[in-house]
Amino acid sequence: MAQLESSPIGQSGFDPGQIIEFPAGLPAFEDLRRFLLLALDGSAIGALQSVDRPEICFPVIPIAAIKPDYEMELPPEDRELLAVAGHETAGLLALAIVTLAESGPPTANFLAPVLIHLGRRRGVQSVRSDARYSHQHPVGPTEEPC
Amino acid sequence: MLVIRRRAGESVLVGDSVEIEILDLSGGQVKLGIRAPREVPILRKEVHLTGEQNRRASAGITSEQWRQLQKQFEDSLKHMAPDR
Q: Which of A22, A29, A124, B43 is buried most, with the most CB atoms less than 10 Å from its CB?
């Protein structure tokens, strides 16, 4: 069991076999290549936790849980980073990073899904170049329509 | 916003050190060549926005906020998964 120093979500030990390699890092965090995907109990939300800088931890949600009709796009350069061939999307998990807004509901970045191949333990934050989805899509509890 | 019409092979200069050349136009896309000093970052705007968003998302979330998020999404899952 390897140790994390001070994860915000209180995780301390992990199995090095669980590390997911992000060969290109994430935008603004290009030097961080090793992450853990931690599930939080009883909740759709998870945490993408940096191994090398324990204070860096992104809240993530599976896009399918929030937007089931999301249409994935995987440009060739990202496919290469994930080491997947052709149009293979099986085994890919699509997550969106969630940001707490100062006011209003949290937002999810649907412009740049985090794609993780769980089998190969590789990940990439794939920034779309179309304007189809917002980088600040409001999520979370909405009022139930009457 | 300054608007300039240019053809393939023509350039614009930004300041003294940045040159943007129109290399090719085809299929609704424009191919740009950019000459700039190494220290000038050049990013697709979407990547820049995502970088800013990533900084905000990871910046000092307290354990209390984590618990709130967790609770919110626990609730929203319940709302989302009614027995149909």
A: A124
